[in-house]
Amino acid sequence: MKLSIIILNYKSAGLTRQCVKGIYAAKSALDFEVIVVDNASGDGLQPWLTEHYPHVKQISLPNNKGYAAGNNAGIRQAGGEYILILNPDITVLPGKLEALLKFMDDHPQCGLAGPRLVNPDGSLQYSTYKFPSFWLPLFRRTFLGNIPALNPWLKDYQMMAWDHKEARAVDWLLGACLIVRRQAVEEVGLMDEQFFLYVEDTDWCRRFWASKWEVWYVASVELVHFHERLSAQKPLLSAVFSKITWIHISSWFKYFQKWK
């Protein structure tokens, strides 16, 4: 089998349904499978999949184990030469999966790659990053990121000076859509499950590089991402008291402790 597509659902039945529909509507000639992992959502997705897409492999977890553990459950059941980690809020368009796999086949040293992500209006979504310094996540994910003097620092971290029109190796990629080579995963290992939510993508990419596998941004493959930045959507000081913000900051502390 060429490709395993893993979609992790947590109370996003509507988005997951549309994502699955889009994959099959693209009518890819690839030999692929779709694996939907449910993090104990209880949102009615599973009976719908059984009725409309009985060939989709379903994995039901007993409780919400988070992003890394949920995707790992799918990876363990995947049979593809390549594995695509796909968020439910991604829309797959015809020909894009084939193009992404061709890039991987043409670049044997690439262990992990991600496409160009765009907003529904077609505007660029920044999804490439440099490895962070210690204080950066705190400033970026709270109201402190609005301080004008920090703008150049934050833009450099997100590689905003680059037009994102050509493929290039990058430090790390947003985990919304990642394709990984099975051979590389066998060497690097699965996502680190100490990260419940956030930073598992940063850590995974760093481990790929540490194992001499390259991480690439594939500008020629464009997918639509209905992205919502949960940890920064609250205004001013209210973000400091947001649970999702503190989950994110906690993950960053674990990351920096791990990588010293």
UniProtKB/TrEMBL annotation:
Domain Glycosyltransferase 2-like span(s) in chain numbering: 4-139
Gene3D superfamilies the record matches: Spore Coat Polysaccharide Biosynthesis Protein SpsA, Chain A
PANTHER family: RHAMNOSYLTRANSFERASE WBBL
Protein's name in the database: Glycosyltransferase 2-like domain-containing protein
Species this protein is from: Candidatus Veblenbacteria bacterium RIFOXYA2_FULL_43_9
